[in-house]
## 1
Amino acid sequence: MNPLQSYHSYQSLPPLAGVGTFEEAAAEGLGVQECVRRLKRYHYGFQRLWQTALARIASEPIYEIKMGLSHHAHLAAEHIGALRARVAEMRHPPLGLDIVPDAHLQRFFDEILGTSDPFAYLSGLYQHALPALRRGIERHLDETNPLADAPSVRLLKHALTEIDAMLVWGQEASARLREHAPEDTKMAVDVWLGELESWLRAAGDLDGTQERPDTPLPEPRHSAVPFVFDRVPARDERFPDPYNMGVHAEAFLHDERFADRDKVLMMYYRRLREIDVPEMMAPILYEMLQAAGDEERGGHPWLFYQEMTRQLWDEARHAMMGEVGFAKLGIDWPKLVRINFTWSKGLNEQLTPKERHAVLWYIEQGQMGKSGKRYEWEVGRDSEDPFAELIQDYDWADEVLHARIGRDWYVQGFDTVHEAAEYGSACWDKVMSDWHAWKAQGLTEHFNWWPALYQEACRLRGEDPDTTTESFDTSYAETRADLQRIAAGSG
Ligand SMILES: [Fe+2]
Ligand SMILES: [Fe+2]
Ligand SMILES: [Fe+2]
């Protein structure tokens, strides 16, 4: 007879701190070596998801996909951090976390990275890659000893919950894109997805535990030539006038003649315009990572990437908070507001990753004074729009965190804060931002969209527009250059 059957806990209290039954805890399960081997493969899966998202955030035109990728980049980065820490608990350095665990698995992810159509790469990621990661983690949870390997179980259960949430978004998104794809694209993508599955099978599935079939492999389709990273931001058709610098939002915000609830409209615009920060941060991270290869990760420890990706996601959230603000008021922002991309485009095209990081910190630390984030929150509070107060409250808290991240990872490279600021300012000075040239080249008319937005807000409130407010017509053209740069910069 199995002795466990006659063993009982004291007063039948739930045993083993709730981690499992005696049968489960007495099973052999995975040894440390096998556990670490598998954790490194999940780590690789999350790494590739993270890097693929970073590679697409700027150049992907569709706003919802940019936002979804920003979110998933953050979630992946958090799980990468947790897995790295767990492997480090069980093994002495070198941990080998940056070694590609399997050439076929690498090919599988390179194929996804190499596609340019969002329908294809979202299908690859969310119909194949994440489900494979999920299968591996489920097997791990089934096979490992819940008492001996409890710390892994805890982090893998957490990962599973977030993978499921990612799958809901990703599968829904790829299904919607499929509905809009032409027949021949759908057929081509389906053929490719079949090939993708072959690479995965040849790797013994993502976790490398399955039989590897002895069948011929397909020719690489999207990874036959190395991936070329595109750092130039692109936008969808709801951003038809991306060089428009016709409305000086900050001049309006700081003008005492105007009412707080009207200033809220400008704050929603400023929030939505923060879409340009993920567009600018993702290439910093992607390029730094590529610069020195995975092993040195561009000279930064992993935590740098994890914290910067959190910041990237915050900036995406701020953009969506602005979107919600407009939607909540019933304002058709794609029609009435011209969100530009001049900041992310200028920085991405003209500065090195380090210089861009310098500008980002320089602008964000400039928001820490009384006239920055605190002021915006005060406007929200006094506007009688509780939603505006709420989002400014969180925007402020997040930006304080970003200033701290900047101090830890950017300022520490200088002898003094003053030097760091000088360098950030000098980098910002290098970026050519020519209001008049853009107009002369026909890129934009710098149309003043404010009166129509304001009139619509008044119509929705059932009020007559105020003449002074309605006639606000200050663009970024006439502002002193240095102020213009600070004011028009996101962060
Ligand atoms: Fe923000
Ligand atoms: Fe921001
Ligand atoms: Fe920020």
## 2
Amino acid sequence: KNHFKKNTGSNVVQNKIPDEGGEGDGDKVDLAEQSLLNKLIRHSLVKNRNQVEVQQADPNSPLFSVKTFQELRLKPELLQGVFNMGFNRPSRIQENALPLMLAEPHQNLIAQSQSGTGKTAAFSLAMLSHVNPDNTWTQCLCVAPTYELALQIGQVIEQMGKFCPSVKLAYAIRGNRMDRRVKLQEHIVIGTPGTILDWCTKYKLIDPKKITMFVLDEADVMIAMQGHRDQSIRIHRLLNKNCQMLLFSATFEDSVMKFAERVIPDPNIIRLKREEETLDTIKQFYVLCREKEDKFTALCNLYGCLTIAQAMIFCHTRKMAGWLACSLIKEGHQVALLSGEMAVEQRAAVIERFKNGREKVLVTTNVCSRGIDVEQVSLVVNFDLPVDVEGNADNETYLHRIGRTGRFGRRGFAVNMVDSENSMEIIKQIEMHFSEISF
Ligand SMILES: *[C@@H]1O[C@H](CO)[C@@H](O)[C@H](O)[C@H]1NC(C)=O
């Protein structure tokens, strides 16, 4: 048993998808699914102590931010909808984004912040505020990567617009058949890029020249889907140059920024950086074992510790996770299994139960290692150490897995199962990695 050196932070690169390799039965992270899962399990805003960074299109214009929704001078029925949803004050990102989005003359915006910081509510509010219900044509277009994500946004708009019954919404999603060549009267259309493009060009349901607000949500997910990226650009080309353009993304890579700057002219840029995961408050150990069964025995010996608070156990493949969960259950332990073969809704239900403490131990693969905060987790077990396709130590995934414990200054523990010369080598690489970058 050994104690790792600790580090003081690292660059968290998101979206670099680790392939779980092996016999190909590992779970791949699907960005759109991950985003949906986050929306399904999120009940409150994420904690984030970073400062919002604002880069104005015109640095000489005054910078407005609001601390209350009342300051935005919304239509009373819209304000009522906002409060009815339980939003009392604007979130950090909304404080800056809302006055910009509602400004006259209009401003373009690129906003980047992680999931759960209030982006969807922000642009839903902007769209609802923007439309003139007396004009019976489509005025706002909102593009999302998938059918499910479009529905999620639609739900927010419907709830928020509950007291604005004259504002109508349509979903441009596959299978939603429309009368061709009869122009839509819905003020807001939300959908996936392919269907929106068809509705604008092939079926002529929407006159793109009459669109005055264009929202592109989850740009990072969108550009990871090649077809979507190109279709979004094609939709964008149909619009008037003076249409207000808003783009949202959960991540910050150069590829997203390049795309964003290509589609959004003269943008204001708002960023709320993710709180970095750190290993500072986490005690890390490894346990030497001989093979799988030996690791299992070691885990059973630890079991009493696992259930003091809550624990997550990571395996390399679905198969291993399935075996481990079954074996633990056979020993009489109550565990939950989260695996990529489950539908998103099923996964959300498992995480929900775990968050509520119905199960204390969650066995999973990498599908769960990103973006999902369960604050009660105080112990993470790497039943299999994280490795990339070439079998090298996957330092980033390690940080993501372990970073789930010890969040927001809590104390956490991590136990690594080392079962071969090879995995000893991997744990040494990880140790070296996190000691190297600490200075
Ligand atoms: C992780 O860090 C170690 C030590 O710095 C390095 O040898 C290894 O290549 C890194 N792994 C990957 C996948 O980059």
